[in-house]
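Q: what sequence does this backbone want?
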């Protein structure tokens, strides 16, 4: 029964037959019992507050959080601090009110020999009678364990791919070194001694292949080593300006027209400027390699809702459809040379910034990479206030 219908009935209760009043009360009791049963059988604990006074708390709220069990089943009318016994949880709940933004926080509790992870969240409930705060709690321990197992599986798969890639990458330089060492040995056996000039043709190749191997090792370590990303709130524009100054001469030398468009007054972002610059540089190098006969490269930065998007669009050879899903995989490359770690590093950097990256490509026409970086909540609020003003 809706509250509106019930209120209408209450306003006319003096003129209603006793039988009708009993029917309405019975109906309301049935609905209330059904809702309570639904909340009790669920997997989420709830505590509804008006101010700091409890209006409702189900059993699971008591079970999942450290609480005073004396109030189990009769918490209504009591203050929240009488119910919750954990200082850390209570300290957090004091910062939450009906005016607060919806947010979530994880708490860790020892339960026997294991640690349970409890997610506590809040949301505003608005009714005709007023506003209430709903505190909900869930045990996410198993979800976290599944995430951990998935990450381990993904990490193992990535490491297996990388190991295979490393083995493939080092075969060619090692083979070249072996061949030239054999040639050098035969030359010694034939002539008895070699001048520096005679030996140089062999040693030069050895030096080149050693540098090649070193490059493979450096790229591999960069790809697998945890990134020490230091996020600071700062503007994206200086990063793009610095990058533009650095790459423009090389791009123009390759016959590539470089167009940079940055929307004015972009919000500040949580960035590690060095890593973001590295990611953008890798994508620009990738685009340059795709435009061997020159072309056009666009770099665009603009606001898009809760994100700032960085778009890098080239007019190169494009990527075949069956290869699109593999471009971020370690050691996947369509080039004759290179380790194939450039876009893997880009993907890793973007994810470390809480962002996302997508790609669209048409063979013979070009490729577009779009990086989405989240705008911090306080920046979003400031932008909304500016637009309202």
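A:
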């Amino acid at each position: 029964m809706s509250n509106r219908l019930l209120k209408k009935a209450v306003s006319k209760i003096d003129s209603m037959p006793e039988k009708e009043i009993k029917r309405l009360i019975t109906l309301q009791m049935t609905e209330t019992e059904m809702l309570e049963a639904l909340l009790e059988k669920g997997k989420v604990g709830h505590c509804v507050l008006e101010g700091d006074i409890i209006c409702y708390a189900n059993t699971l709220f008591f079970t999942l959080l450290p609480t005073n069990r004396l109030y189990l089943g009769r918490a209504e009318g009591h203050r929240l601090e009488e119910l919750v016994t954990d200082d850390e949880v209570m300290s957090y709940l004091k910062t939450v009110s009906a005016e607060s933004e919806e947010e979530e926080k994880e708490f860790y509790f020892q339960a026997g020999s294991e640690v349970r992870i409890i997610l506590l969240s809040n949301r505003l409930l608005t009714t005709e009678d007023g506003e209430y705060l709903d505190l909900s709690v869930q045990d996410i321990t198993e979800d976290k364990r599944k995430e951990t197992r998935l990450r381990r599986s993904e990490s193992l798969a990535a490491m297996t791919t990388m190991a295979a890639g490393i083995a493939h990458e080092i075969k060619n330089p090692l083979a070249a070194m072996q061949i030239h060492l054999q040639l050098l040995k035969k030359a010694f056996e034939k002539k008895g001694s070699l001048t520096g000039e005679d030996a140089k043709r062999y040693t030069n190749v050895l030096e080149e292949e050693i540098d090649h191997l070193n490059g493979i090792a450096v790229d591999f370590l960069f790809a697998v080593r945890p990134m020490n990303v230091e996020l600071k709130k700062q503007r994206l524009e200086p990063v793009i300006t610095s990058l533009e100054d650095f790459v423009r001469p090389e791009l123009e030398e390759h016959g590539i027209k470089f167009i940079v468009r940055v929307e004015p007054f972009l919000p500040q972002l949580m960035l590690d400027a060095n890593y973001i610059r590295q990611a953008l540089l890798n994508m620009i190098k990738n685009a340059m390699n795709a435009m061997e006969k020159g072309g056009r490269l666009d770099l665009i930065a603009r606001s898009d809702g809760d994100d700032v998007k960085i778009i890098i669009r080239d007019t190169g050879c494009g990527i075949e459809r069956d290869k699109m899903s593999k471009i971020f995989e370690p050691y996947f490359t369509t080039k004759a040379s290179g380790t194939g770690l450039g876009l893997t590093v880009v993907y890793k950097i973007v994810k470390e910034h809480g962002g996302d990256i997508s790609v669209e490509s048409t063979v013979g026409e070009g490729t577009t990479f779009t990086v989405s970086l989240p705008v911090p909540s306080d920046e979003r609020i400031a932008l909304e206030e500016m637009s309202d003003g």
